[in-house]
Amino acid sequence: MKSEFTTPCKPSRLADIRRFLYATLARFKVAEGVKHEIVLAVDEACANAIIHGNQCDVSKVLHLEVSKKERQLTIEISDVGEIDNDELDDAMEKSLDDLILERKAGGLGLKLIYSLMDEVNYFARDNRNICSLRKKL
Amino acid sequence: MEIISKLSEDALKISLIGELDANGAINLDRIISKAIADGYYKIAVDCRQLEYISSAGLGVFISYISELKSHNGKFVFYHLRENVESVFNILGLQKVVAITPDFIQAKNQLHEV
Question: Domain span at residue A95?
Fold first, then answer.
């Protein structure tokens, strides 16, 4: 089972991405509670790619591929934006208290992604950045 | 996403309606920033009609927590749906902001500073 969605890198399209995911996960018969966790994690990954990786450049596109094999769901989000691995590491190291003190909120999305998914991988393939998220169903 | 803000005495009530994601967070930031500039440091957030929240939405509140605290103010969230409350819990936000079941209790909490 596989489902795909492509959108320009525009923050207002995040709602469309969530609707696509809810419809796809319903078709894949994913349980209600798990469905919300997956949608939240993918929404966070897409928001990072659109806003930080591609600076909301609408001439660039974000591609999502959702597939289910036996009891494992895989979501691949691909784009041509830039990934700053140091920035990712810094964001993950900040505690909630650090963020409150610094009056910033960066890195919360990554914390959600890693908390909600079983496997998270960032890598490059065919000149595209791939964020691969896996969840056991 | 619709945000309704209402001023009363020394407090601001914000009602969030719909889905608060990275796109809607900009407008929320503008509203809170203006309220603080106008001297409102006690903010009740009605989440009854909030269907979804992402880290960008929560991030707006987090970025103002210490400023409100420095003026003896705070955020109090009430009427949270289960899926919204679970996002607060995953990030540990329930430890740093007040969450109450309804507006009456939210009002009491705001004035307990």
Answer: 2-136
User: Terminal CA-to-CA distance of chain A, rounded, Å?
Assistant: 14
Determine phi and psi for A131, rounding to 5 degrees: -110, 115
Q: Which of B52, B59, B86 is closest, CB to CB, to A108?
A: B59
pTM: 0.90
B66 Cβ under 8 Å from any chain A Cβ: yes
CATH of the domain at A76: 3.30.565.10
The pLDDT, as a whole number, for residue A34 is 95
Interface A:B, Cβ pairs < 8 A:
75
Domains of chain B listed by start with CATH number: 2-110 (3.30.750.24)
Residues of chain A with pLDDT under 70: 84-91, 105
Mutate to test the interface with A, among B19, B27, B55 (most CBs of A within 10 A): B55
Three-state DSSP class for residue A99:
helix
Is B84's Cβ below 8 Å from some Cβ in A? Answer: no
Average pLDDT over residues B18-34: 94
- Condensed to tens digits (0 to 9), the pLDDT of residues A1-28 reads 899 999 999 999 999 999 999 999 999 9
Token pair 């609707």 in the structure block, residue = A19
State the pLDDT confidence band at B98, using cuts at 50, 70 and 90. Answer: very high
Q: Does residue B97 sit at the A interface (CB-CB below 8 Å)? A: no
The strand pair at B74-78 and B42-46 is best described as: parallel
Instruction: Report the C-alpha gap between B16 and B89 in whole angstroms.
Output: 19
